[in-house]
C-alpha cells in the first residue's frame, strides 16, 4: 500500500507571516496540535502547539508574533508514492505522530497521521503496534532547535 492511499488530502496550512494566535485558532478549529507551514506552495516548516508555548509564550512573545519566528524549519516528510509500511517504520523510529506528504516535485499533497496508518490495511497486519511502540519510547531526538530546511525520512 502506498502513502497516498492512507493519507488525508485536506490539510490546513499556516503561512510564515500568519500570527501565532491565528495558527492557534486554526489548530483549535481542526482539533490538531500541528500545522504545516507553506509559502508559494512549498513546505517551509511546521508549527506546533508546543512551539507556540515554548518558543513564544515562555519567552514573553505576544499573540502577534509571526509563525516564522517560532516554527520548526527542520521538517521530516515522506513522498506520496512511498510504501506505507516503510514510512510507518520510519515514523516509529523518529517518534513522529504526523508527517507531511509531498509529491516528487516536493509540493505538499497531504498529511499522514498515526490514525491514518491504523485505519489502513497495513494496520490490520499488525504494523500499528510497532509504530506505537516506537513513538512511545522516551528520550528521542528533538528537532525544535534546528534551522535547517526540509529533509526526508530516508
Describe this structure in words.
The chain has one domain: CBS-domain (Roll), CATH 3.10.580.10. It has helices at 3-6, 20-30, 49-56, 84-94, 114-119, 121-124, 127-135; strands spanning 34-39, 42-48, 76-79, 98-102, 108-113, 151-152. A hairpin with a 5-residue loop joins β4 and β5. It is globular. The chain has a 4-stranded mixed beta sheet. A two-stranded antiparallel sheet has the order 1-2. The longest helix is centred in the first third of the chain and has 11 residues, at 20-30. By secondary structure, it is of the alpha/beta class.
Features:
154 residues, alpha/beta, CBS-domain, two-stranded antiparallel ribbon
Reported for the largest beta sheet, the result is:
4 strands, mixed
Low-confidence parts lasting 5 or more residues at pLDDT below 50?
143-148
Q: Label the CATH architecture.
A: Roll
The 3D shape can be described as globular
Classify the beta-strand content into a percent band. 15-25%
User: What structural class results from the helix and strand content?
Assistant: alpha/beta
Number of discrete domains:
1
Number of helices: 7
The CATH superfamily is known as CBS-domain
Q: Trace the largest sheet across and list its strands.
A: 5-4-3-6
Topology of helices and strands:
Blueprint: H1 3-6, H2 20-30, E1 34-39, E2 42-48, H3 49-56, E3 76-79, H4 84-94, E4 98-102, E5 108-113, H5 114-119, H6 121-124, H7 127-135, E6 151-152
Helix pairs in contact: 4-7
